[in-house]
Amino acid sequence: MNPFSSGTRLRDMIRAIRACKTAAEERAVVRKECAAIRAAINENDNDYRHRNLAKLMFIHMLGYPTHFGQMECLKLIASPGFPEKRIGYLGLMLLLDERQEVLMLVTNSLKQDLNHINQYIVGLALCALGNICSAEMARDLAPEVERLLQFRDPNIRKKAALCSIRIIKKVPDLAENFINPATSLLREKHHGVLITGVQLCTDLCKISTEALEHIRKKCTEGLVRTLKDLANSPYSPEYDIAGITDPFLHIRLLKLLRVLGEGDADASDAMNDILAQVATKTESNKVAGNAILYECVQTIMSIEDNGGLRVLAINILGRFLSNRDNNIRYVALNMLMKAVTADAQAVQRHRSTILECVKDSDASIRKRALELVYVLVNETNVKPLAKELIDYLEVSDLDFRGDLTAKICSIVAKFSPEKIWYIDQMLKVLSEAGNFVRDEVWHALVVVISNASELHGYTVRSLYRAFQTSAEQETLVRVTVWCIGEYGDFLVNNVGMLDIEDPITVTESDAVDVVEIAIKRHASDLTTKAMALVALLKLSSRFPSCSERIKEIIVQFKGSLVLELQQRAIEFNSVISKHQNIRSTLVERMPVLDEATFIGRRAGSLPSAASTTTAPSVNLPNGVAKPVAPLVDLLDLSSDDAPAPSSSGGDLLHDLLGVDLSPASQSGAGQSSKKGTDVLLDLLSIGSPADQGNSSAVDILSSNSSNKAPDSSLDDLSSISLSSRTTSNAAPMMDLLDGFAPSPPQTENNGPVYPSITAFESSSLRLTFNFSKEPGNPQATVIQATFMNLSSNTYTDFVFQAAVPKFLQLHLDPASSNTLPASGDGSITQSLKVTNSQHGKKSIVMRIRIAYKINGKDTLEEGQINNFPRDL
Amino acid sequence: MGIRFIIMVNKQGQTRLAQYYEYLTIEERRALEGEIVRKCLSRNDNQCSFVEHRNYKIVYRRYASLFFMVGVDNEENELAILEFIHLLVETMDRHFGNVCELDIMFHLEKVHFMLEEMVMNGCIVETSKPNILTPVQLIDKTS
């Protein structure tokens, strides 16, 4: 015996694994065993091969890789003895799959074994072939399998039948060869052969219409007779389950009859009697009987219509549905789903029971029932059904609420008879489960509200009321804020009062309160806050009396750490205080959003949408010419569209607010600042086209950075704040950004400002870090590393490496150069992006290594940086 | 093809037997088993025996400390699978005599042989216990 083989028996290995207390211990045992098995494989150890393979199967089951044992399977299969072959074939089926090339090697062994004189070995080969055969093997071995369909022993015939299924699925062309042998199997008495033969015929029918026609014509009667014999057969202990002889065969037969009866009146006619008999006579107090009834109902619903049978089937389903056993109710719901297409009327009758199932305590039943209700909804019953579902929303489980909300929204949107009802229902959903509502759903709601001009007042008042009770629902807050921004004056003056409404008294300052709560609420996210700022700007014009207060709120956000908010606050503040004359035109009501465009964009047809969206900004109703049109861009969707093909189709409102809320996308950062510039330039209506001005600004910046390295915080477009950029090159903007000095832009108005640090200094080298934050992503910090050579030698092959602990993620951009001139005569810059998953808890640390050559001689410097600003 | 996989798991969620009838990588299997076990083990006795997961329907049944889980596609008759699990357990019972978790662990290959006789390529081959067990017991006689 080989000295390296551990020699443990399978039993001992399993014991050892069972004794493991932790996953780590288990891994250690498995590793040791695997090493021993590999060694044995290398030794070509014959004696223990099958024991090793048995161990490997156990290890495989535990979920460890075992590919190294694959060749062993083949060797065992090729060995002459039955026990070896047995375990070899089992290993083949468990450890290999049809995608592996090793499998090609087994074709020959299989062919030999299929022709073996020992029928058990033939059985093994058939079984393996049936489980793993690939298309090539199917072609090679189909004749053998076909022959074995007529083998004398029924145990071989049944396996050959299932093997044939695999073959015809892999190579459908071969199907016609199997039609005749398959139909002859249907005349057998042996249950194993029958059940597999029926299965083979079912699959043949699915693959080839020729087979379907043939079997329908030749075998329907025979199958009906077989089912009749089976249903009436006396007690047979071998196949009896709960008083029924072989329910599995029943089910297979019913399934094949279904295939044959579908779309063929004659065949359906032939099976009517037996289906009626099965449906009425089968005992329904045990699982087996119910399984047959369930299958029978499916068949009745699928074959050509026979009124009497359908009634019978629907009654069975009704009985199932009121059964106390949850399993039975589950399959009933499942079945009703399929029956809807055949007989929607009959299913509607059970609506109230189904609705009860939506509220069941069992998640599986709830899910089925909800799906069923969803297909049952139509124009006539949408109101009561939606009401039931929305009422239930209040008490539903949290993990079910997402599904339920999505379905309700979809139902309401699809079948709403009138806009006011739609808006009402949506408001209810938003107040109950606003946090589960997807973006496109509330975007759609805003579009509808915008289009329902006679309901603006009603809607904004309803939203105001809903907000008082459900201010924690994010999407409700967003819609409310948007509507108050647009239609705040309707709220205060009770404009467009409907008869059904109770008048409410809302002062201007109450309306501003709502927006203030939304913007100051801790849980509000960036989108909500950004929307609130826009709403405030609009309200400042609608409610002149609150203008001062609004200004104060806006001013508070000038120091926001989030670039987007800071930028808006600064811009809006300027608009309020300095540009009174244009403010009212600036914040006019949004033009009615184009529903067709929105739907088109939801469907994802971005190109066409992009071309159509230019229209609304052109035909603006406000009549103010050029200087204002770009202003509308600030709040509208047109100009942002073209440069942002990455923005998803449905984000109408995002565009609308000019926010790029996808800081994660690589291009996003650059684009968002670019967009921002566009808007700002437009806002001031600078003579030159916005695009051009912007790109030149970028050019200036990038060239700037390459010349003047210490100022290199400028060259990182993604990190730099818009305001600093514009001050550095766009003089006309000064007045907008008043208060900012025109010179050194990169420090004081960079949003969150972090001092530069000298991260590392030795006698020969100095490394400084400048920091900036990415907008909207407080976890990410962009570090601009600048290297200075303090010695009088030039460094070549300069390489900087950095490592961070696990809670950080580090991304290094390429360095500007790998040569560092002597005596501080130039520098290398390199930007690093660090994402701190423990932002706010831990500060950044970093270990660095700098390698370079002085006159061809390697030098290495290492160090750890601990002096990062704390809150990065 | 009705049955996609058959898994036996104990109460602690450790896999005791896994047979797949479609190709999944070992990582996918581990993930799938973990997800299913978490879903099924958290359900109580009053809830139904069917769980929908990804594009599978899991039919499961509990026997003492062992869970039998069968993943099937949409076409399959769930109640029949429930009955099939019982048939499998009865067959093992007849072979081992009051089968328990340890029997399955220590005779993994035997259980696989039985399964092989009962299911092939996701279809039921044989439903008679004597027919299933004859070839399995043959190997005991020869070796």
TrEMBL record, chain A:
Pfam families: Adaptin_N, Alpha_adaptinC2. Keywords: Cytoplasmic vesicle, Golgi apparatus, Membrane, Protein transport, Transport. It is a peripheral membrane protein. PROSITE patterns: GAE (PS50180). Residues 702-719 have a biased composition (Low complexity). Residues 697-719 are annotated as: Disordered. GO terms for biological process: intracellular protein transport; vesicle-mediated transport. One of its GO terms (cellular component) is AP-1 adaptor complex. Its main location: membrane. Residues 752-869 form the GAE domain. It is found in: Cytoplasmic vesicle, Clathrin-coated vesicle membrane; Golgi apparatus. It comes from the Eukaryota. Subunit of clathrin-associated adaptor protein complex 1 that plays a role in protein sorting at the trans-Golgi network and early endosomes (TGN/EE). The AP complexes mediate both the recruitment of clathrin to membranes and the recognition of sorting signals within the cytosolic tails of transmembrane cargo molecules. PANTHER family: ADAPTIN, ALPHA/GAMMA/EPSILON (PTHR22780). Belongs to the adaptor complexes large subunit family. This is AP-1 complex subunit gamma. It comes from Clitoria ternatea.
TrEMBL record, chain B:
It comes from the Eukaryota. Belongs to the adaptor complexes small subunit family. Gene3D superfamilies: 3.30.450.60. It holds the Pfam family Clat_adaptor_s. It is found in: Endomembrane system. One of its GO terms (biological process) is intracellular protein transport. This is AP complex subunit sigma. Keywords: Membrane, Protein transport, Transport. The keyword Protein transport applies. SUPFAM superfamilies: SNARE-like (SSF64356). It comes from Clitoria ternatea. One of its GO terms (cellular component) is endomembrane system. Residues 3-141 form the AP complex mu/sigma subunit domain. InterPro entries: AP_complex_ssu, AP_mu_sigma_su, Longin-like_dom_sf. The keyword Zinc does not apply.
